[in-house]
Amino acid sequence: MPGTEAVTTPAGASGDAGPTDQDVAPRGPGAFDDHKPPSAELVADCVHCGFCLPSCPTYVLWGEEMDSPRGRIYLMNEGLGGEPLTDSMVGHFDACLGCMACVTACPSGVQYDRLIEDTRAQVERRHERSRADKALREGIFALFPYPRRLKAAHGPLRLYQRTGLPSVLRRSGLLDRLSPTLSAMEGLAPNLGRPEPVLERTSARGTRRGVVGMLLGCVQREFFPGVNAATARVLAAEGFDVIAPRSQGCCGALSSHNGREEEAKRFARALIEEFETAGIDALVVNSAGCGSAMKDYVHLFSDEPEWVERAEAMSAKVRDVAEFLVEVGPVADRQPLDVTIAYHDACHLAHAQQIRQQPRQLLRGIPGLELKEIAEGELCCGSAGIYNILNPEPARELGDRKAGNVMATGAEMLVTANPGCLMQVASSIERAGGRMALAHTVEVLDASIRGLSPADLGVR
What we know:
The protein is built from 26 helices and nine strands.
């Protein structure tokens, strides 16, 4: 767990109540500069009641006040009051998964999502990271937001997977001993299936009900192409022309969620320009983290008057695929699919976008399908974008905990709505010696509409 020794714990932190007498101090020359510091008004909304504590993954793991939402808000207040941005303070901010479960749990409506994102942007501008940490982050952001670069990695990855080395390395534990980070990256790599390219325009089947754009994404496009192909088929079956330009790039979610503000803006501008003249009724997204960031473009561009209206117009069209399908209602017939499913709420769908019932409603609409709930369903699986690479040990703990709860349902298949969750939980289930089919919500719908069997969904 990142450094806790140098942080002064607020009064009452050892009990159920946090610092109840801490007024928001005026911002001075401390941890933050004048460009979008965490808002003092939003900090003041926290009444330190502690309702967030059981929902916070790092607090559940470690029981440390400063690794809870209210503890981090206390540190933000200290920074606003003039305290410097120390390594210890940054360690607590970095330890946050950004899962936003605390936002759901908070009875006072504290916008912790806004606070942590603005704080992370400050950290990236003002804090000097170690050479190793900086190199790892630069490597990640030189690869993952670029679909073409991810595609170029297919060849080496396929060759590696065919050699049998993955199972040897995992059994030996060698990578764990050499580098937990490398071990995490190796364990998360999905088995590459056959390419399933999506047409730039897929025509509606039957009566056309409208025209939608479709985000192809980065990791989704290159590592889970079947999800995009299924999304296009389902939308077409439901009567929509689907526009999916191959030239589209990253939406900026990964950069935005990790404090790389200018990089996020660059990606977002390009995506807005790609779709704003496409004549679409909605922009459908099948990755929870991407949809969450795209719906928040207004805040990303809040300091740029020339872009904020364009960002707002684009965000207003963004819909998660489950959200969109429930809004428009089904027209395509569902064929029976005899399978027992455990549904995992991706954090950026359930907590950041407040979309919980729509995926369940769609799945329950499939004849023969039985849906089971997962214990501790609100607790993050540990993926959290790139958290499982930057913080492999707590991510593994959370992944193993999630895998245990998933397997305890006795379900044949795990279904979720985010590529990171699929990779994380698949890795944890394999590590536990289990074997389970995994699929995106839209893949299950596609199988039902096409009259396929559960076996056709495969095992990752």
